[in-house]
Write a structure and sequence with these properties.
Shape: rod-shaped
Strand content: 25-35%
Order of helices and strands: HEEEEEH
Largest sheet: 5 strands, antiparallel
Structural class: alpha+beta
Length: 161
């Protein structure tokens, strides 16, 4: 039985291949899949960018914490340190009253101490903060001179004069 040639029947018999409709369906499926893949890649790149910014903020905060170890808030209540690419600024406020330190084994130490709340701000340009945090620090100030060595020991204090 022979088949008629026409619009619905291929002219070349039972040759395998894609019809125009199958090709369009394949292109539509490919386009939908590629759209989803591009959205996923965009989301991954955005997340990687956020992680990079977060890591930079953590590194800046660690650097500022290290810098603040040299700051004595009792002696310098506010200030700034320029670190090249950015500046660390701080202001301190006493949290406790200034008190004499305790000497060992008894008596007062050579220092007065107090606890301070220090607000630290890391800026790349003035007014543009990169990170901010609050730090609790001990402030200290030397207020007494040490006693002479061997004071009060019979026989030794006479020899040191």
């Amino acid at each position: 039985m022979s088949r008629p040639h026409g619009f619905f029947f291929p002219a070349f018999g039972d040759d395998a291949g894609f019809t125009l409709l199958e090709g369009l369906v394949a292109i539509a499926l490919l386009a939908g899949t590629m759209t989803a893949i591009f959205a996923l890649v965009g989301s991954i790149l955005s997340s990687a960018n956020n992680v990079g910014r977060s890591n930079k903020t953590v590194q800046l905060t660690f650097n500022a914490l290290e810098v603040m170890t040299i700051v004595n808030p009792m002696e310098q209540g506010s200030g700034q340190i320029d670190l090249g690419d950015y500046t660390v600024r701080w202001t301190s406020a006493a949290r406790t009253a200034i008190a004499d330190g305790v000497g060992y084994p008894v008596g007062s130490s050579l220092y007065q101490v107090a606890l301070y709340d220090t607000d630290v701000r890391i800026e790349q340009q003035p007014g543009a903060p990169l990170a901010e945090f609050r730090l609790r620090q001990v402030g200290y100030r030397r207020v007494r001179e040490p006693p002479p060595p061997f004071r009060g020991i019979p026989g030794l204090s006479d020899r040191t004069r």
